[in-house]
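Dear support,

I submitted the protein below through the web form. The confirmation email said the job was done, but the results page showed an empty box. After a refresh the structure appeared. I'm attaching both so you can tell me whether what I see now is the final result or a partial one.
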Amino acid sequence: MRDRESRTRVDGTESSEPEERPTDPELERLVEQLEELEEYVDNPDERKKVRKAIHAAHRVPGAYTVENGIKRYTTRDMAEAFVGSVLLSLPLLVEDGVFEIAEYLAGATVSEVPIFLISNVLFVGLLTTALIYWTDIRDVGVADPIFGFVPRRLIGILGVSLVTVTGLMIMWGRIFEGEPTTAEAVGRITVIWTAGAFGAALGDILPEANATDPIDRIDDREG
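What the results page shows now:
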């Protein structure tokens, strides 16, 4: 990435050309290790110290890509995806219009294959992929892909949102209400999964609140 800032030439004049900020693999590994440590620390005071160390590492010159990008996929990311999925799927859970859409998806068949239902599942995957990797919200990298090419973050977001949506529909009795066919029941899940996956992706990749003003720094000021 490039950061536009003025640079002083040897002759003392200013240049507005963008300066390439270096990246340090060792620094990135340090931040990853600190993030892993934060997951295992139970004591609030110790966790606060680890967060301070992470923020300090972010401010070290050369940490630009670590601070503004996302590489690892952690349990915290899964929790954020869960919250985002719940927030966007809840409004649809009480809408009976979901049943009509699901019936339409299941009824549009070619040689008894519900092509619109399958298309909707593919649309969910494409929408989530586009939101994570093709937008400029955050610079999301791929670390340790499954089978060497499947991003863990994509699978995690789709999986968490699908399980969340299915669990909520079962708990609220929305899957089998009115005795739908199997295809219609699956259609109901996929309709709400569309919103749930979108919310999960947003919850996972949106910049955190502490990106500009760390929470522990706010706590220190209030104390």
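Response: this is the final, complete result; the empty box was a page-load delay. Confidence is low (pLDDT under 50) at residues 1-23, 63-69, 209-223.
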